[in-house]
């Protein structure tokens, strides 16, 4: 079959051939059954009946043979009466056989049998007449001729019967030949149907079932098929693809919107960073002039308080601008080997006065100093300071901070340095936990909302991450994980 034909054309052609062969074989079988049925019907209704008539004719002739001898022995006229009955029976069967004759030869044969029978009857009656007259010698001679005619007539009857035997044999042979032909035709049809079925199976297997199985195996993974029905598995895969395509289209539209928004935010961020940088220089000049005026001008008590409020607020604005500039510009890390425990110690030393002012007690839980990691100690110090300051501000009226350090291992065997900062402050509500690392999100009136995002970015730049756990009214714990191999 040409390779350029479509699968539909190939399948339709093979199925059409199978149907044609099956219908042709069925037609031949039906036609042969009718022929055989008619042949058997003719054989039964004609040949068999004619054969039975010929055999009955022969039997009626044989039954006439002994009555003449019986009469000669005991001169009982009953034997002659019985002889007459069988003669009548012979003629009736001869007429019946004449009715089954289909050809001129058969009729001629039966007419000759009838003529010879008449001669046989006449000769037999002549011999009986001689015996009745008492001429035994002439009767014996005539009886001998009667026997000769009897056997000749019997031979004609036997020949006629064998002719029908031959016809029966020929009919049986014809039926056998037709049966053999029918078997060959059936076998050939079965072979053709089996061959076409095999071709169809191979065609469907290669061009339909194999691709379906591959698609189903891709759906189930590299392992064995979960669903043995390939069509059902492929249907499930197509449904998943359609669903995924719809989700991808939705995500693509959302991503396009986010990208447009991100581009706008980048422009806004660049503009804001430039504005923050422009604001910072005048603020620095204002702070210096205020410091100079504070030392040179004589101020009253009220003016001194106003001067301190102005200085404090300008310092707050400068802090906001400084945090914004740090968040807008990715830091340049100065990587070196350092133990996170030493960074924690420097943070505690740096914040010792502030911790006392907040009336906060710090407890360090450490069995041994953490191993060295590749990091930027100054950046880590800034992140840790943010955690400590947030904890202090969350504990109004004093409290307790617990810093715990340990080495943990992931499932793949990689080592991690874990530093946890836990306070006893007011905690963070559960609905706000997911927003604590978003820029500019804060729950304090004087907060900038940039401390935790800056800390998160610092830790992520070191290849680590931050987990947060908080219960409102009981406290908050920030857990920092840093990779110990220092490759990130």
Q: What are the SSEs and their pairings?
A:
Blueprint: H1 7-63, H2 67-74, H3 77-100, H4 104-133, H5 136-220, H6 230-296, H7 301-328, E1 336-338, H8 340-350, H9 352-357, E2 360-365, E3 373-375, H10 377-394, E4 399-409, E5 415-423, H11 451-461, E6 465-471, E7 475-483
Parallel strand pairs: 2-4
Antiparallel strand pairs: 1-3, 4-5, 5-7, 6-7
Describe this structure in words.
With 488 residues, the chain is an alpha+beta fold. The protein has 3 domains: 7-206, Up-down Bundle (Four Helix Bundle (Hemerythrin (Met), subunit A)), CATH 1.20.120.1730; 237-329, Helix Hairpins (Orthogonal Bundle); 335-483, 2-Layer Sandwich (Heat Shock Protein 90), CATH 3.30.565. Helix content is 71%, strand content 10%. The protein contains 11 helices and 7 strands. It has helices at residues 7-63, 67-74, 77-100, 104-133, 136-220, 230-296, 301-328, 340-350, 352-357, 377-394, 451-461; strands spanning 336-338, 360-365, 373-375, 399-409, 415-423, 465-471, 475-483. The strands form 2 sheets. It has a 5-stranded mixed beta sheet. Helix 2 (67-74) packs antiparallel against helix 3 (77-100) and helix 4 runs antiparallel to helix 5 (136-220). The longest helix is centred in the middle third of the chain and has 85 residues, at 136-220. It is rod-shaped and about 200 Å long. Mean pLDDT is 75; it is low at 222-227.
């Amino acid at each position: 079959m040409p390779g350029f034909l479509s699968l539909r054309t190939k399948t339709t052609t093979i199925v059409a051939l199978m149907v044609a062969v099956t219908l042709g074989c069925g037609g031949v079988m039906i036609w042969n059954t009718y022929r055989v049925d008619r042949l058997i019907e003719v054989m039964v209704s004609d040949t068999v009946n004619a054969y039975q008539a010929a055999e009955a004719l022969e039997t009626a002739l044989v039954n006439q043979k002994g009555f003449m001898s019986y009469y000669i022995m005991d001169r009982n006229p009953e034997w002659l009466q019985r002889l007459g009955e069988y003669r009548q029976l012979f003629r009736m069967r001869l007429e019946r056989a004449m009715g089954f004759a289909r050809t001129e030869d058969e009729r001629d044969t039966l007419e000759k049998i009838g003529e010879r029978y008449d001669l046989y009857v006449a000769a037999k009656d002549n011999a009986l007449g001689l015996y009745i007259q008492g001429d035994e010698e002439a009767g014996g001679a005539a009886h001998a001729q009667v026997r000769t005619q009897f056997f000749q007539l019997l031979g004609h009857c036997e020949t006629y019967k064998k002719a029908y035997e031959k016809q029966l044999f020929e009919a049986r042979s014809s039926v056998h030949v037709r049966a053999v032909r029918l078997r060959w035709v059936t076998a050939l049809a079965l072979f053709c149907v089996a061959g076409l079925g095999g071709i169809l199976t191979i065609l469907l297997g290669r061009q339909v079932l194999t691709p379906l199985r591959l698609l189903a195996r891709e759906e189930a993974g590299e392992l064995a098929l979960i669903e043995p029905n390939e069509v059902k598995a492929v249907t499930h895969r197509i449904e998943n693809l359609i669903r995924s395509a719809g989700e991808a289209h939705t995500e693509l539209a959302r991503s396009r919107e986010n990208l447009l928004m991100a581009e706008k935010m980048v422009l806004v961020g660049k503009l804001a960073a430039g504005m923050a940088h422009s604001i910072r220089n005048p603020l620095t000049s204002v702070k210096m002039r205020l410091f100079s005026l504070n030392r040179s001008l004589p101020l009253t008590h009220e003016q001194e308080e106003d001067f301190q409020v102005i200085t404090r607020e300008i310092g707050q604005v400068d802090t906001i601008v400084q945090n914004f500039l740090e968040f807008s510009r990715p830091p340049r890390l100065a990587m070196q080997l350092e133990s996170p425990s030493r960074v924690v110690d420097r943070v505690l030393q740096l914040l010792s006065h502030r911790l006392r002012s907040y009336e906060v007690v710090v407890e360090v839980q450490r069995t041994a100093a953490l191993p060295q990691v590749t990091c930027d100690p100054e950046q880590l110090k800034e992140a840790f300071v943010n955690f400590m300051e947030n904890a202090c501000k969350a504990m109004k009226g004093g409290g307790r901070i617990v810093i715990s350090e340990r080495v943990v291992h992931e499932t793949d065997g990689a080592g991690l340095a874990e530093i946890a900062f836990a306070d006893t402050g007011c905690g963070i509500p559960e609905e706000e936990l997911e927003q604590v690392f978003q820029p500019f999100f804060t729950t304090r009136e004087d907060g900038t909302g940039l401390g935790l995002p800056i800390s998160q970015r610092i830790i992520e730049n070191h290849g680590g991450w931050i987990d947060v756990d908080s219960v409102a009214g009981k406290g908050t714990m920030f857990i920092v994980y840093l990779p110990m191999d220092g490759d990130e």
